[in-house]
Amino acid sequence: VVVTAQPAAWHLETNADDRAALLDFWAGLAPALHRFDPRLTFPELLNEPVFPGSPEAWRSLQHELLQAVRADLPQHTIVLSGNDWGSIAGLLALRPEADPNVIYSFHYYDPPELTSLAAWRPGLDRTALAALPFPADDRPACFRVAARSDDPATATLIRFYCGLHWSAARFAARFAAAADWARRNHASLLLGEFGASAALNSDARLHWLTAVRRRAEALGIGWMLWGYDDVMGFGLRPPPTRARLDPALLRALGLTGQP
Fold first, then answer.
1. How far apart are the C-alpha atoms of 79 and 65, rounded to whole Å?
2. Cα–Cα distance, 231 to 240 (Å, whole number)
3. What does the DSSP assignment read for 181-249?
4. Pairing status of strand 222-225 against strand 2-4
5. DSSP code of residue 255
6. Can you give the pLDDT of all 259 residues of the chain as single tens digits?
7. CA 44 to CA 82: how far, in whole Å?
8. Most CB atoms within 10 A, among 54, 97, 184, 191?
9. CA atoms of 229 and 129, how far apart (whole Å)
10. Beta-carbon neighbour count of residue 120 at 10 Å?
11. Can you list the alpha helix ranges (DSSP code H) found in the chain?
C-alpha cells in the first residue's frame, strides 16, 4: 500500500506556509504508520510535485521531507519522485538521495491526446477524440478520424497526434532513459500511475495499456494502474455487491489468461 499526500489547494512552489503544512502533515502521519508492516506500507512524500522548471527547489523540499519521515520510520521504504508532475522528465532531472531504502516513482500518460482525450482543453469534440487509434501506424486511417469532427481545433489536434506516429516504439525510448537513470544511480523504479480513459475506443485503450505494461515489465519496473474507482482504470465505485472486474482489462494487465 502506497500512502501519499495529494494536495488540492497547496501552492508549494510559491507559498512557504503550504510547504510548512506538508511538513506538518508528515509529522502527524509518519508516527501513525509505525504499526503497519514496513514490507507492505510505502510512504510517498507527495503525489505529482509540479515545481515547473525548478527540479532543485523540489529536490530540496523532498530531501527535507525525507529526513523528517525517515526519523519516524527507519525501516519503511519511502517513495520519491521528480518534479514536472512526477514525469519521466522530472525523474531524469532529479539527483538521487543517499538513503538506500527508497524507490523512485514516475507517472506515464503519454500521449495525453489519446489517454485523457485532451482533458486539459475544454470545448473539444470528445466523440471524435475517442476514435483515435493506437498504435497510429496507419497514417491515412488516423487522419480520417479528423474528418469526423466539425470542430477545427479538434481536427487540428487529431492531425497533430497522427503525425507523431504513436506506437509502443515511440515511448520505449523514454522508458529506456528512465531505466538507464536507475541503473546509473543504483535505484529501483516504480511506474506509480498509468491509465487511459474508458471513453477511448476499446481497441486503442487495451493496446495502449498492454504496451505500457509490457514495456515496464521488460525493464523490471513495477507498475500500478490508476485506478480502481477512476475512469482511467477500472472505473468501479464501491458497489453494494462484489464488483466484476473487466476481463479484457485484466488481460491487458497480464493478470488473467494470456497477456
1. 11
2. 19
3. HHHHTT--EEEEEE---TTS-HHHHHHHHHHHHHHHHHTT-EEEES-SSSTTTT-----SS-----HHH
4. unpaired
5. S
6. 999 999 889 999 999 999 999 999 999 999 999 999 999 999 999 999 999 999 999 999 999 999 999 999 999 999 999 999 999 999 999 999 999 999 999 999 999 999 999 999 999 999 999 999 999 999 899 999 999 999 999 999 999 999 999 999 999 999 999 999 999 999 999 999 999 999 999 999 999 999 999 999 999 999 999 999 899 999 987 766 677 889 999 999 999 855 4
7. 12
8. 191
9. 23
10. 8
11. 16-32, 55-72, 83-86, 88-92, 112-115, 126-129, 139-146, 152-163, 168-184, 202-218, 247-252
- Bridging pattern class, strands 102-108 and 42-44: unpaired
Could you tell me the pTM of the whole model?
0.94
Cβ(187)–Cβ(95) under 8 Å? no
Give the Cα separation of 103 and 99 in Å (integer).
10
Cell of 135: 498504435
